[in-house]
Amino acid sequence: MPECNHGKLQTIYKARKLLQILEEVVSSIRGDASLAFSGGIDSTLLMHLSGYRFSAITVGTEGSRDFQNSEKVSRTLGFPVTRVIISESTVRMAIDDLRSIDPEINVTELGYESVLYIALRSSGHRMLITGQGSDELFYGYHKYLEGRSSNREDLDKLMNITLPREVRIAESVMKKLITPYLDPRVLQFASGLNRDECISGQRNKVILREAARLSGLPPDIVENQKKAAQYGSGTMKIIRKILRT
Description:
Blueprint: H1 3-27, E1 34-36, H2 41-49, E2 55-60, H3 65-77, E3 81-85, H4 88-101, H5 107-122, E4 127-129, H6 134-137, H7 142-145, H8 152-172, E5 176-178, H9 184-190, H10 195-198, H11 206-215, H12 219-222, H13 229-232, H14 235-244
Parallel strand pairs: 1-2, 1-4, 2-3, 4-5
Helix pairs in contact: 1-11, 2-11, 4-5, 4-14, 5-14
């Protein structure tokens, strides 16, 4: 069998396994829940596998990339999205509360954690589901496209710093954080992956995108690329303005 065909078959095999695991993980989420939805592949696949039973919520500034993405995807797939428009006063409150939770938090972390904080506070449900972990596990960051081979450092930070902090953020507003991509079953599966299986040219998250394709999502959604939460939401621009004043 030609090597290229063998590689493609291996990708499909692993993607089917991942899809099966994610279906099991999502189906095990009981009760009503909100989903932090950006229109990217991570949150879209979770929504799709839920049968669109979660309440999608998008946080952003007017005209932000995340609003544009979430609206386009929700129209295509036929489910509603609640928009939460970020204001400077809301971001100021988020910064103050996040710094009280983690005095060591840096500016970049304030960017994406502010999005989470605002989503948690705005959610009408006790549980908020996020796509946290997908970028680290499936080589979604741009630096992996540029040749970085290992995700170990990113995973260590995620599990030892970011995730514990986000659990505390959720608890501070009496909410529960649900992270399907960090379920032990997904972690065990992803531990067997390497960069070359997840990156093909300038295409990232190859295994996850193949799983999304197998789930029945349309190609334009499967291949959708998005900015990090702090940039796609427009939050980082507000934070920089606040910290300059």
